[in-house]
Amino acid sequence: MRFHIETLGCKVNAYESEYYIEGLKQLGYQEVGAHEPCDICIINTCAVTNTAAHKSRQKIHQAKKDNPDAYCVVVGCLPQFVSREQREALGADLIIGADHKNEVPQRIDRLVKTGRPDDLVEEVSTFHHFEAMPIRTFENQHRAFLKVQDGCNQFCSYCAIPFARGRERSLPAKQAVQVAKQLADAHHLEIVLTGIHTGRYHDGSTDLAGLLKEMLAVTPASVHFRISSIEMTEVSDELIELMRENQRICRHLHIPIQSGCDATLQRMNRPYTVEQFQSRIDQIRSALPDVSISTDVIAGFVQESEAEFETTMRNLEALQFSFMHVFPYSKRSGTKASTMSGEINGKIAKARVSKLLALSQALRLKDMARFDTLEVLIERKQGNYYTGYTSQYHPVRIKSDQPLSGRLIVHPDSLDENGYLVTLKR
């Protein structure tokens, strides 16, 4: 039977979809493209904002319209976050929330064989174990992903994730190290450790730095490790020292700041001030001069005045991030921020997003220009260009008539608005 999966939301959702795909293929199912007829439609949903939830519902309705005779499977944050009545209104044959995700392929197989619908959504308060979802190999990719953590205890005022994914929990270190070794044995050259709150990884006395140390010990020197995202309060001295000692940990940290104004950060319930963030960033850069630090920013948060936004712009430029992921604030029912007065006009928020994106591009080009030579992992061929990312997670395009693969040392030739245009170092 043929299946198609639509994935919305974060990189963790993308990882989980890859797990579903691998599991279904092992059971004999065939994956097809978005516009091909299929027997099973899977929608891996997001509900982090009202807009994301609306898009998830649209995808569900579109999938049912395009394939009216197919089984409809809805997975993830949307069904976890809404009421039973709202789940029933989705009209899906199989609904799975934040738990039982590691059973998705088998549950789909059972649905196909029995035809019996099922709703497997439980209260997030019952989630105390980490569901291992190891992906053994990423086809035709040098970069692999390994989910080691799920859930969040932070309860930022704008965020629904703690309600949709539950509290923090981690993959046992022994199991995580074993999967990392398997990915290395499958010839992946970079392993990205990912999670909802990756920096909060904890298994007994093993934290994220300890886990990385164990993974480095059991994998060959050709395999590098990357941290997908980490909070400022979680960049420990031990992690900084491990990165300083070992070039196999990529020289890039993505550390969300969300705002560059203390008053806004306080309304967001973020656990630091701009000064504290700056101080820690300075310490990291002092120990790791070749590190690039990127961030997330929310534009147009509730009550964000023009003065607060200008403060954010000034401080973000001073912090010298390598690039910024910018999001307009979008209300999420059930969060603290959704009850606050002072919502920002959409046009104003959109204009602020544009200004932040322009700043991000300028910061990216400035950060790229710091380096005389760069190490890049080639990922794919596009025409007669090869593309990939540097250790600092800058995009690279290499024009070459000769086949290129793996990790290369390059030097900048010229810059364009999308990243480096480079030639091989002679």
TrEMBL record:
Keywords: 4Fe-4S, Iron, Iron-sulfur, Metal-binding, S-adenosyl-L-methionine, Transferase. Its cofactor is [4Fe-4S] cluster. It is an enzyme of class 2 (transferase). It comes from the Bacteria. Pfam families: Radical_SAM, UPF0004. This is Threonylcarbamoyladenosine tRNA methylthiotransferase MtaB. The keyword Ion transport does not apply. Residues 1-113 form the MTTase N-terminal domain. One of its GO terms (molecular function) is 4 iron, 4 sulfur cluster binding. Residues 138-366 form the Radical SAM core domain. The lineage of its organism: Bacteria, Bacillati, Bacillota, Erysipelotrichia, Erysipelotrichales. The keyword Iron-sulfur applies.
